[in-house]
Amino acid sequence: MNSLATDSVDVAAAEGGAPPRALMKGRQTRAAIVDAALALASHIGIEGLSIGALAEATGMSKSGVFAHFGSREELQISVVREYHARFEEEVFRPAMSEARGLPHVEIEIRQDLVSDDAGQARWARRIARALQDAEQAFLGSAA
Length: 143
Hints:
It contains seven helices and no strands. By secondary structure, the protein is mainly α. It has two domains: 1-82, Orthogonal Bundle (Tetracycline Repressor, domain 2); 98-143. It starts with a helix and ends with a helix.
């Protein structure tokens, strides 16, 4: 949705009136497209994300998806912004509300382990590196 349409929704709401039903429907559709785009990008990468691939994944027409973003680049930017917002809400804020130290790490691990295979693989690599570092430190101190 372009900024002009978003501004008119905000103006209508600020004036005490409800935004027009069509604009609310447009926002819901755009949010659903961004959700689908985020899921698709997690599998094929942000560079592989295109209007056509998303249209196919959602069962929409290319022109229907294009109408909400205007370009492939704006679609990709919207997906990155949504990912950032979700990361902040689901990972960063809960971690910052915990006590410092180990509780922060536990929150991050829990979030990654339940998120997806990529998160699990990322933590497996981190743990393997930590074990290697600990082994090297131990062997170095034993010499």
